[in-house]
Amino acid sequence: MSLQQTARMENYKQFLCVFTLALALGFVSVAFALAWVLHFREGLGWDGGAAEFNWHPLLMVIGFIFLQGIAIVVYRLPWTWRCSKQMMKLIHAGLHVLAFILAVISVVAVFDFHNAKNIPNMYSLHSWIGLAAVILYPAQIVMGIAVYLIPATPVYVRAALMPVHIYSGLFIFISVIATALMGITEKLIFSLKSPAYKDSPPEAVLVNVLGLLIAAFGGLVLWIVTRPSWKRPREEITQGVSNYSTSPEDIKVGTAMTSRTEQESSLETRRRNGKAEESG
């Protein structure tokens, strides 16, 4: 095995460790959110009361944070590189749509609760940024489907809009993380009276840890999606390798071998061009 192949194997192991940690943090975040609303709050219901409000933080953590994070990094999973790019686009879009549906239900829950209790809506920074994210998110999904899922879209349009699509997606994700941290802090300040939030009762400690888990999950998602070496290879490379390999390690090695072959071919072409110029 060459040094380049060994390096790619190590690169795959690093990705696997980071992704596994992100996945674990995501699942633990959902578990903490569920424990919060079931053990410390009023449980779950749909009657305009506090139990209906509790759907808001729970579904936001599940949909707008966890599912959106997985949707963002799904292209980076080496074991999916055998799938066609079109299939991965459908999975990517499907996860985002599911996350949006859960986010909408959570927003309806909090508005129902506020209206039933005569609590004003849309007065806090948490609600302003949160609603902006909920509005921008479907716009991002529609643009992605229109530009990247419809075959008729010209290639130059896709290429031109790709930086915008990537930036806006990460911007929305970061905004959602920030909004969630503001929201859970706001909820604790309003809800904890005796003992108060400043006295660090068990509920406050659990929710503070939930905030740390959410922030760590978001940080790992951003790390995964910004590593150039973990980017999905070109379609023709993955299709060629998939005909002969079944494991992520084989895909990595095959990609490295293909890249090396392309480099050697390029060097050979330059040598020939140099000889032709000397002969001339």
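Second entry:
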Amino acid sequence: MEFKEGLEPVSPYGHYFNSSKLSVSVIGVFESEVPINLPHVMSWLEDVFLPNFHPRFSSLMFTDEKGEKQWKRVEVKLEDHVNVPIIPTGLTPTSYDEYLDDFISNIAMGRFPPNKPLWEFHIFNHPTSNAAGTIIIKVHHVLGDGYSLMSALLSCVKRADNPSLPLTLPSRRGTEPAERGNKSAWARVPQLFSLLFNTASDFGWSVLKSTLVEDDRTPIRYGNEGAGYLPITLSSMTFSLDLMKHIKTKLGVTVNDIIVGLIFFGTRLCMQEISHKSSNADSTALVLLNTRKARSYKSIKEMVGDSGASWGNKIAFLHVPIPKFKDPKFSNPLEYVLEAQKIIKRRRTSLGVYLTDRLLDTLKKLRGPEAAGKYVHGILWNSSMTISNMIGPAEQVTMANHPLNGFYFMTPGLAQNLTITIVSYRGNLRVTAGIERGGLDPQKFKSCVENAFEMMLKAADEVPKPKM
């Protein structure tokens, strides 16, 4: 595999996510069935990890004399990127759960030093409630988005049952019928007007939400300075993919629609428990969208040569209002799923995302990367939460010969008090809430989301099966 040597320009989102307003990272937490063997990990990093990940993992980012950020290839010293914390031995798994939570919080708040590539490996070699040992990988978001990083990760792990077999992934497809492409020109006129109206509406609302219109202050949005850089607690919950598909079959939606609706309903339940007034507050979620044409993961070699699945940050933020309890329509939990589906589908198919991307590019050219970074900060700051969803392997995998019980990820630095991430693995969905300490109770939030799922399952059982 050949890559251009010398200097390479940093992508637009590389500027936005590494500005005076934002410094966004991705943290992956991998739970091993066995204690961590450090020599095995070091060999895996040298022989598998670095060769399979993008050259940016072997590059420094610096600002040239024109003020433009560039990548420059350097030699990587693995020992500078691996950290093994000194922690008391002989404690209970519950005690180590607390140590791990504090350890991850400190990693999330830490800044990358400017003199080495922007990634770190942390080995927490103590038994917790979920693992015999834990590997934490932190990378700066400028290196790539979730699609890029998951593609690279899948190139570095093996199936636990048979390493020679390829990994399989859950289906992305929904149950909606495909639209026919043989409509007459006159039949397409209403569609065109609808597209124009939705584009103007979505783009106009996005600009207002990013500049002038803030969400209300609520239990999930404190409005405090320093949001995104304060200590956090991670609260994880696991849901069966088969049960999700049960709801999917009844409603004719995607699993992603169900997850977003579940988060919305569980969040409103939590807000109501804390403050009845806040259950009807104006709150908005940012649902992250992968803007690539490719629907499946690719190898790094394929991503370097394929513009439809290129490496980097190819994402967009969809503003999705969180439904309010005061609307009688939402007395049925399943309406949260249907509403999420309707809004996400409309905004995905409008040109609002494209226009926002052009606006950011124009800001960057006319006023510089910092102005564009400030605008992205406004997108995040004025909203209440971000929801990011990734597809993971259907089978158990090994990392550096360590079988993984599970894994999850988080994106600290998003200038919000609440961040939600979802990843599938071994027939389950792992939903993780990153909650800044001193505000929302993580256990209460977890309980409300789990309760919301039970209510959705019960409501789905009462829906008749769709006619074939």
